[in-house]
Amino acid sequence: MGLFARLFGPKAPAVWPVHVDDGSYAAEVLRSPLPVLLDVWGPGCMPCKQLEPIVVRLATRYQGRLKVAEINAAAAPRTMQKLGIRGTPTVVYYRGGRELERIVGFRGEAYHADYIENELLADGATAQPARALGGDRTSGFQ
């Protein structure tokens, strides 16, 4: 047992994001009873690698209140096309099967935690479609 574990007790095990692909996107993201953070990453993307431990910490921190999922953009071309994903990393937030927000590029843990706490999980929050071109991004997946 390490020094910190002896001082502060054993560390809680990490909660890993749910893996999503073209076949499971609708079931895991659009039909989730919980709000969803979807991490879209690409192989060889250094900002994606920087974001990975943040996503794991968010999954652990919000376990039971937020579903955290990840999708490899290179392995899910149909989903990427339907979502209009053009770059990685991209984090997409959903509630009630609707896209609420999309963040392209790396943002730190505090940014995501603030959005989750103040927008996604806030009391009285209602699902509003994202302010993005292309209208309803859920069409074709249900």
List keywords for this structure.
single chain, 142 residues, alpha/beta, Glutaredoxin, five-stranded mixed β-sheet, 5 helices, disordered C terminus
Topology of helices and strands:
Layout: H1 3-8, E1 18-20, H2 25-30, E2 36-41, H3 46-61, E3 67-72, H4 77-83, E4 90-95, E5 98-104, H5 109-120
Give the structure's gist in a few sentences.
By secondary structure, the protein is an alpha/beta fold. The protein is 33% helix and 20% strand.
Question: Please, could you describe this protein's structure?
Answer:
This protein has 142 residues and is an alpha/beta fold. It has a domain at 14-107: Glutaredoxin (3-Layer(aba) Sandwich). Helices cover 33% and strands 20% of the residues. It is built from 5 helices and 5 strands; from the N terminus they run H-E-H-E-H-E-H-E-E-H. It has helices at 3-8, 25-30, 46-61, 77-83, 109-120; strands spanning 18-20, 36-41, 67-72, 90-95, 98-104. A 5-stranded mixed beta sheet has the order 1-3-2-4-5. The longest helix has 16 residues, at 46-61.
| Radius of gyration from the alpha-carbon trace, in angstroms | 16 Å
Tell me how many strands there are: 5
Strand order of the largest sheet: 1-3-2-4-5
- What name does CATH use for the topology of the domain at 14-107? Glutaredoxin
Please give the CATH class of the domain at 14-107.
Alpha Beta
Structural class: alpha/beta
Given the C-alpha coordinates, what overall shape results? Answer: globular
Task: Figure out the total of helices.
Answer: 5
Low-confidence region ranges: 126-142
As a percent range, the share of strand residues is 15-25%
Report mean pLDDT, rounded to a whole number: 86
Calculate the terminal CA-CA distance, rounded to whole Å.
Answer: 48 Å
Give the proportion of residues in helices: 25-40%
Question: Which architecture of the domain at 14-107 would the CATH scheme give at its second level?
Answer: 3-Layer(aba) Sandwich
Find the CATH superfamily of the domain at 14-107.
Glutaredoxin
**Series of secondary-structure elements, N-terminal to C-terminal:** HEHEHEHEEH
Taking the sheet with the most strands, its summary is: 5 strands, mixed
